[in-house]
Amino acid sequence: xxxxxxxxxxxxxxxxxxxxxxxxxxxxxxxxxxxxxxxxxxxxxxxxxxxxxxxxxxxxxxxxxxxxxxxxxxxxxxxxxxxxxxxxxxxxxxxxxxxxxxxxxxxxxxxxxxxxxxxxxxxxxxxxxxxxxxxxxx
Length: 138
Description:
This protein is mostly helical. Helices cover 70% and strands 9% of the residues. The chain is globular and about 50 Å long.
C-alpha cells in the first residue's frame, strides 16, 4: 500500500534528498534547511518571521527554532519589527559569505540531479510537485 501512497513516497524521497544535500553542504557548516532559509532571505531581503514562515510553508514556531543557531553563528541578525510583537530577520555579511560558499557545494548535487533527469523532465517534475501540493490543499 505504501508504494501507492503519495505522502509516503514524497516523505521517503524528501528524506533521501535532504540527507544527500546535508552531506554535500557539510563543509559549509550548513544543513539544506539552513541553506534554504539563507537563500530565501538573500532573494527576498529582510523579513518578519511570519513572512518567512509563509514563504517556506512552515510553522512560525518551528522556524524560530531553526533561526536560533544561525543568529548565534552571526549569519543572521534579528531586529525589532514595526511593532513590539514582530521581529525582522536579515542576512549578515558573514551570512552572505557562508551562503556563497554553500551555493558552490549545493550546485554540484543540484546539477547532478538535473542532468540525471534531463532539464525538461526536471521542470515537469517541479510542476508536478506544485500540482500535488495544490491538490492536497483543496
